[in-house]
Specification:
Length: 459
């Protein structure tokens, strides 16, 4: 018999039970549910709402149930619908009517709001630690590639020279923002909703702040309707995870390209690649491709919950049961992707000669050549047109800016002198970009130091 069956004359249809039950997915919150119930029972006893010996008996039994679940000795049932009613049914079965007192001054509405916050707070911390490990790996790769010249791209066309370290620090800065977004989300999530009741709190003299402190929350929710009826904390997390996965997807796309024979900038370790069932020569970057593909899955979870919540009146509606599967899936996906991506990156081998060779083609020092003329006193637009004509001449004559003779330079402009060759040297092009944030060695080392300081603050 269901806990809410008193008002009903008929039992629910089996199809209703199957659709209504959530135990298949919310059972993962059993530890959070029991932890919240222990804090609630302790408060009920301390406030004299139930007898202290009853509270003690409930707490002792809940701890036994937690141990039994961890030991695999408990089987949940769909008949009891969800994790909350399953735990309560086991408790009542073991200690009788005393177990029924646990739900005093509480609703499943504020109970589930508590459980999911407790669960996601734990998961955010785990994801944050994995993201920090990835950030450390990116910085380590950057430190090993400070003198590796490579082309940077716009429109996937070779654009200007940079270093592998500078390239890596772009992703380091993205991931740093991802980590701070998680931290901000955790801070906003740090509100304890228990005590909101179904929607208008309770007539019992409960102590919400005691429960919040025991459960590790910094504060309580200030409005009981809001406490049970919003899931913006879950939406914020899923949005943050979507942005993080977008960054990982872009990084994955770079790695997929760099592994190809057309680029061949890197070589993945065999442990993080797969082969073909028919083509013996293939070494496929499947891990990078899977991370790229799973990004869409996280996006889908976010859109699912946004759509569920978009037109719900206050307060709780059964639609909100649909919050858990998408948020759980998003969390699981990110937690699966981060460690394997980190390991793949950590074991990836750079091929500096190929990067340098690619940088030597595509006229990526053309801007520097124009800047040379500007520093000789020529307006930039005039310099731009002259260098454009030089590039066109090179293409037609199978030359590069480095292999042009002085006569060929002077045929375009007598402003050119022999020092132009030093100016368009790729190493000099990189290290002459002295603006903060650029690819010069000094600038990249400052960027690395900044990320290192960020990481050290989180040790």
């Amino acid at each position: 018999m269901k806990a809410w069956s008193g008002r009903f004359e008929k039992t629910t249809d089996a199809l209703t039970d199957a659709l209504n039950a959530s135990i298949s997915f919310d059972s993962r919150m059993y530890a959070e549910d029991i932890t919240g119930s222990i804090a609630h029972a302790g408060m009920l006893g301390a406030q004299g709402i139930i007898e202290q010996d009853e509270a003690n008996k409930i707490i002792a039994c809940l701890k036994e149930i937690l141990d039994d679940i961890n030991a695999g000795k408990v089987e949940f049932t769909e008949e009891n619908e969800d994790i909350h009613m399953n735990i309560e049914a086991i408790l009542t079965e073991r200690i009788g009517d005393t177990g029924k007192r646990l739900h005093t001054a509480r609703s499943r509405n504020d109970q589930v709001a508590l459980d999911i916050r407790l669960y996601l707070k734990k998961e955010i911390k785990a994801i944050r630690e994995s993201a920090i490990a990835l950030l450390e790996t990116i910085v380590k790769k950057a430190e090993g590639g400070k003198d590796v010249i490579m082309p940077a791209y716009t429109h996937l066309q070779r654009a200007q020279p940079t270093t592998f370290a500078h390239y890596m620090m772009a992703y380091a800065n993205m991931l740093r923002r991802d980590i701070t977004r998680l931290e901000d989300c955790l801070e906003r999530m740090d509100e304890m909703p228990l005590g909101s009741g179904a929607l208008t709190s309770t007539t019992y003299p409960i102590d919400r702040r005691r429960v919040a402190a025991e459960l590790g929350f910094s504060r309580i929710t200030e409005n009981s309707i809001d406490g049970v009826s919003d899931r913006d904390f879950a939406l914020e997390l899923m949005s943050d995870l979507s942005i993080m996965m977008m960054h990982l997807s872009r990084f994955s796309e770079e790695i997929v390209l760099w592994c190809s024979w057309e680029f061949k900038f890197v070589e993945l370790d065999d442990a993080f690649a797969t082969g073909s069932s028919i083509m013996p020569q293939k070494k496929n970057p499947d891990i990078a491709e899977l991370v790229r593909g799973k990004t869409g899955r996280v996006y889908g979870s976010l859109i699912t919950l946004l759509t569920v919540m978009k037109a719900l009146p206050l307060a709780y509606n059964k639609d909100m049961q649909e919050d858990k599967e998408p948020v759980f899936d998003a969390v699981d996906t990110v937690r699966a992707c981060l460690p394997v991506f980190t390991a793949m990156l950590d074991t990836m081998t750079l091929l500096p000669d190929n990067m340098r060779a690619a940088a030597g083609r595509g006229f990526i020092n053309a801007t520097d050549c124009a800047d040379y003329l500007v520093k000789k006193g020529m307006p930039f637009r005039d310099a731009y047109k002259i260098v454009g004509r030089l590039v066109n001449y090179c293409i037609k004559n199978n030359k590069t800016l480095e292999t042009l003779t002085m006569e060929e330079y002077n045929a375009m402009s007598d402003t050119f002198d022999s020092d132009v060759y030093e100016y368009i040297n790729l190493e000099n092009c990189v290290n002459s970009r002295i603006a903060e944030g650029g690819p010069s060695l000094k600038s990249v080392e400052a960027q690395i130091a900044s990320i290192r300081a960020f990481l050290n603050d989180r040790m």
